[in-house]
Design a protein that fits this description.
Length: about 650
């Protein structure tokens, strides 16, 4: 008889799993030995699989290369003589046989060194070259062959050449939106580096802020202010960090405001009685323009009618940082009309009223580094100078209706010059396209004599390649943002237009065009704000506010509130109202002369006039004392004769 095991089963069944226990635990295989995993073996298997795949890939590519070579050789053999073709075939056969032997040897050697190397064995050509350890660490398929890369590069070059041939295709002018700034000229435009906010300034002294992400289809500014009171805005520019805005107006003091319009600093005004402008702390005359330093945070530059260009720091508004004094060739003062920094910030360029363009090193204020004395006609205001993005070319927009291009490396003559570009504003500017292939500027027109245009010139040939009719007014400002790829234009009739392309442009105007215009809420039409107290006592509860329309209807039914005011009386008068005799001073005096308001009578007699009536019909005092009032007795008054008779004798004797 067999001995039962500990689990209550016989010895013959003790080695197998218990079916009842498996059902109770909820899974089969209970009681079996757990499977063990050998990680080293798994890694080795994975390595061998990767090596095998890489080897197959290499063999397939070698076969493709051989086939391509054979095709090329066949093409060459058709052109050559039969003798040469035979020698080539023999040479190819010898090469293929040697390649087969070398490949067999490499396979034999690789089988012996599989444990040491990771990856496929090197082919014959690669074995002769120095081994690249970076390629040994890479597992997986190899990069595509060189032929495919060459073809892709050729396709890219073809596309680039097509784009270079047609730079006009990159102009984003398929769509536009119009922002209504005011009724006067938009003389300043500024866009922050990210392209989220636009700021406009004009001859109406207003500065308006536009947020593309917050605007809807109504295109309304979210803030308007007058930072310089009654001075025209001439220049607005965001700093390179986008947190401050430089405001240059017709005053002698530039201002810096933050993104929300609050003042950060104001430059100090200089002493106008000092002869040497380098010894005063600030500008003493009207400003023209200003510019931020492209690299250094908090540094900016301004130019003024006091014949100086000054650099400032936001942290030190009480004194300028440095002073540049433009001079003629004879050493006389000359007024700069515009100024700008180079792209790297090392150079400062200024155009002057005598037609010259002068460029200084930022750290050397004494003598200009470049000086061209007749860049534009003398006596005209050069309205803009700007550097290209590569920093080698300078464009100048002159008051002599020209646009010129200069190479600062050979600053002895202009590269190109274009005429027939009328301008009537001292701030008409020009700018480069983001790819540096086009130059843009605007034209001015008389009122009712055509439309202002935005003109595009190719930088390489300086040909007039494209034009855009903006509006029936002058084009004053233009700005081509490199990130948004959108063009902002300020016009002479108070409009700011934004041109964009849905496919080529990014964000900006595309954000606000898709938003529908919001409707005005009913709560905005209430007469005044009130406090809602639903649980207050009736005596403290405020009456429910009604809209203005219902209140007006209720007032119309009220006879007192809806009573028409009576007009002034004309003529002699009626209804108890005295008529007027004219509104002049003489008529007033004549009217009041006839009214005798003086009383020359004796006041005692005026009172005694009513004594008899008061005695006959007492009403106030006499009835109260009628029973207790003593009888009035008056003393007898003697005449002068009786007094003389009654005098004593001693008085008569004395007399």
């Amino acid at each position: 008889m067999e001995r039962p095991g500990p689990s209550g089963v016989t010895g013959s069944d003790a080695s197998g799993p218990d079916p009842q226990l498996a059902v109770t635990m909820g899974f089969t295989g209970f009681g079996k030995k757990a499977r063990t995993f050998d990680l080293e073996a798994m890694f080795e298997q994975t390595r061998r699989t990767a090596v095998e795949r890489s080897r197959k890939t290499l063999e397939a590519r070698e076969k493709e290369e051989e086939m391509n070579r054979e095709k090329e050789l066949r093409r060459q053999s058709e052109d050559l003589e039969p003798t040469s073709s035979g020698s080539n075939v023999a040479r190819d056969c010898s090469k293929s046989s040697s390649r087969d032997t070398s490949s067999s040897e490499s396979e034999a050697s690789s089988e012996s060194s599989d444990d040491e190397l990771i990856g496929p064995p090197l082919p014959l050509k690669m074995a002769e070259e120095p081994v690249n350890h970076m390629e040994e660490d890479i597992l997986g398929p190899l990069p595509p062959p060189l032929g495919e890369d060459v073809e892709e590069d050729d396709d890219d070059d073809d596309d680039d050449s097509e784009e270079e041939e047609n730079p006009v295709q990159k102009i984003p002018d398929s769509h536009e939106i119009t922002l209504k700034h005011g009724a006067k000229t938009v003389s300043a435009l500024g866009l922050d580096p990210s392209g989220a906010r636009l700021v406009t300034g004009g001859y109406d002294y207003d500065v308006k802020f536009w947020d593309f992400a917050g605007m809807d289809a109504s295109f309304k500014a979210f803030r308007s202010l007058q930072p310089c009171e009654c001075h025209q805005i001439k220049s607005l520019q965001y700093s390179n960090t986008g947190d401050m805005i430089l405001v240059v107006s017709g005053s002698s003091q530039a201002k810096v405001i933050d993104r929300d319009g609050f003042e950060v600093m104001e430059c100090i005004k200089g002493d106008q009685y000092i002869v040497d402008m380098a010894n005063t702390k600030g500008h003493t005359a009207m400003l023209h323009t200003g510019s931020w330093h492209p690299k250094i945070k908090g540094e900016f530059m301004t130019c003024s009618n006091d014949a100086t260009v000054r650099t400032w720091e936001v942290e030190n508004p009480k004194k300028q940082k440095s002073v540049f004094k433009p001079r003629t060739m004879q050493g006389k003062k000359v007024i700069p009309t515009t100024c700008t920094y180079s792209r790297d910030g090392n150079l400062i360029a200024a155009a002057c009223q005598n037609g010259s363009i002068q460029i200084w090193d930022r750290n050397l204020t004494v003598h200009p580094k470049f000086h061209y004395k007749q860049a534009h006609d003398p006596g005209t205001d050069t309205s803009c100078v700007t550097f290209s993005y590569d920093g080698n070319v300078l464009a100048s927009r002159g008051g002599d209706d020209t646009l010129k291009l200069w190479d600062i490396r050979q600053f002895n003559k202009p590269l190109f010059s274009a005429s027939g570009l009328p301008t009537m504003f001292p701030m008409t500017d020009c700018c480069f396209s983001p790819d540096d292939k086009l130059i843009v500027t605007g034209t001015s027109v008389q009122r009712g004599c055509g439309s202002g245009k935005l003109v595009f010139f190719e930088r390489r040939t300086f040909q007039r390649v494209y034009e855009i009719d903006i509006t029936d007014a002058s084009v004053v400002r233009c700005l081509w943002h490199p990130k948004l790829n959108q063009i902002m234009v300020g016009t002479g009739n108070g409009l700011a237009k934004v041109y964009y392309d849905p496919n080529k442009s990014q964000r900006g105007a595309k954000l606000c065009v898709v938003k529908t215009q919001r409707k005005a809420k009913q709560a905005e039409t209430l007469t005044q704000d009130y406090i809602i107290t639903p649980h207050a006592l009736p005596m403290f509860r405020e009456p429910r506010q009604r809209s203005t329309r219902k209140q007006l209807e209720k007032d119309r039914l009220d006879p007192l509130k809806s009573h028409k005011p009576e007009p002034p009386v004309a003529g002699p008068g009626r209804g108890g109202r005295v008529g007027t005799h004219g509104g002049t001073l003489s008529s007033y005096i004549v009217k009041n002369i006839a009214l005798d308001k003086t009383d020359d009578s004796n006041p005692r007699e005026a009172i005694l006039r009513h004594a008899k009536a008061a005695e006959d019909n007492p009403y106030w005092v006499s009835p109260a004392y009628s029973k207790t009032q003593p009888k009035t007795m008056f003393a007898q008054v003697e005449s002068d004769d009786e007094e003389a008779k009654n005098e004593p004798e001693w008085k008569k004797r004395k007399i």
